[in-house]
Specification:
It is built from five helices and six strands. It is α/β, with parallel strands linked by helices. The chain starts with a strand and ends with a strand.
């Protein structure tokens, strides 16, 4: 399952993501990955969550991120939830067609691996492709 938190810059997407992640952590068997760009949230992410600064890896583009997520799941088969903060920064690509393709492929991976994925997108909801809007909840 994929869920997207959508809103303009400064609308509170990241605090909402952190709040949801902290609640999710209370669930029995939670195995959570949090992916960010840069080390902005080190002190805010609980130690039980695997925090990944994507800049430490040679991951660029949506295909690179999809391969990275596949590798995480191959190594750790019981990941329950993946949080990705600021998708455009993480992949370095704000092309909306690429984003739509990524969501389509990510949906397949999430189903196969039984992951729940929550992504923040800095944008106006109306500016996103309809296929991405279907996953979005306005912040």
């Amino acid at each position: 399952m994929i869920d997207a938190i959508v809103g303009v810059k400064g609308s509170g997407k990241t605090p909402r993501l952190l709040e949801e992640m902290t609640k999710e952590l209370m669930e029995e068997g939670a195995n959570i990955i949090f992916i960010e760009y840069g080390k902005r949230l080190d002190s805010l992410v609980p130690y039980q969550v695997r925090l990944i600064d994507i800049t430490e890896y040679p991951v660029r583009g949506y295909d690179g991120l999809l391969a990275f997520l596949s590798g995480l799941n191959a190594k750790d088969y019981d990941i329950s939830h993946i949080y990705i903060d600021s998708i455009y920064k993480v992949v370095g690509d704000d092309n909306l067609d690429h984003l739509a393709d990524f969501f389509r492929e990510l949906e397949k991976l999430a189903k196969q691996c039984e992951n729940r994925v929550t992504i923040t997108i800095t944008a106006e909801l109306e500016s996103l492709p309809k296929s991405v809007q279907a996953y979005a909840r306005k912040n």
